[in-house]
């Protein structure tokens, strides 16, 4: 085997390991972000008038699903609701209800910057560029959670469904947030080393 083939093979292995670490870090960031959102909002959701009204009408509104809406809302993803005569409306619960603190917007940012930093440290990134590339791999773990959230956080109301908007959940929460914030976390961490 030539030296060139060995270096290409080793380079590929290194990229795959970095992507694996990024996927685990991205998944961890998503799960920790959801957990932090759950802790901060579940009591408010369970005691809300809307939740009590839906329970009275016989439509179960599981708290964990509404927390999922709020978690994705902190990424700029709106939740779509069925309206009358087949129409739909959308809302960002964090923006529209005073019961939710705007500090919730920091949850995904902190989780993803931390995840990007963790990947940079784990992979021994020594330059800003290598740290940024390592941090960007958090998308490999965060994207599947954002996509799955569209289905997992769906709630059937009559013949219609309330759920996070699929397009923005995928693109904004699944790709833009982890790429941007993971990259920043990785780059800053590498620069400080």
From TrEMBL:
Pfam families: DUF7978. InterPro entries: DUF7978. Residues 1-192 form the DUF7978 domain. Keywords: Membrane, Transmembrane, Transmembrane helix. The keyword Transmembrane helix applies. The keyword Chloroplast does not apply. The chain crosses the membrane at residues 21-40, 103-121, 133-157, 169-192. This is Transporter. The lineage of its organism: Archaea, Methanobacteriati, Methanobacteriota, Stenosarchaea group, Halobacteria.
């Amino acid at each position: 085997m030539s030296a060139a083939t060995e270096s290409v093979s080793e380079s590929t292995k290194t990229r795959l390991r970095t992507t694996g670490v990024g996927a685990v870090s991205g998944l961890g960031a998503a799960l920790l972000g959801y957990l932090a959102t759950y802790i901060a909002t579940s009591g408010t959701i369970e005691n809300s008038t809307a939740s009590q009204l839906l329970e009275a009408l016989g439509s179960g509104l599981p708290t964990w699903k509404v927390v999922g809406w709020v978690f994705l809302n902190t990424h700029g993803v709106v939740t779509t609701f069925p309206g009358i005569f087949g129409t739909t409306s959308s809302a960002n619960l964090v923006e529209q209800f005073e019961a939710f603190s705007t500090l919730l917007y920091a949850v995904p940012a902190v989780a993803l910057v931390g995840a990007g930093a963790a990947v940079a440290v784990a992979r021994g990134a020594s330059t800003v560029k290598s740290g940024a590339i390592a941090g960007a791999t958090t998308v490999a773990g965060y994207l599947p959670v954002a996509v799955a959230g569209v289905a997992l956080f769906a709630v059937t109301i009559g013949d219609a469904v309330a759920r996070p908007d699929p397009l923005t959940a995928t693109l904004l929460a699944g790709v833009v947030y982890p790429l941007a914030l993971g990259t920043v976390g990785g780059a800053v961490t590498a620069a400080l080393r």
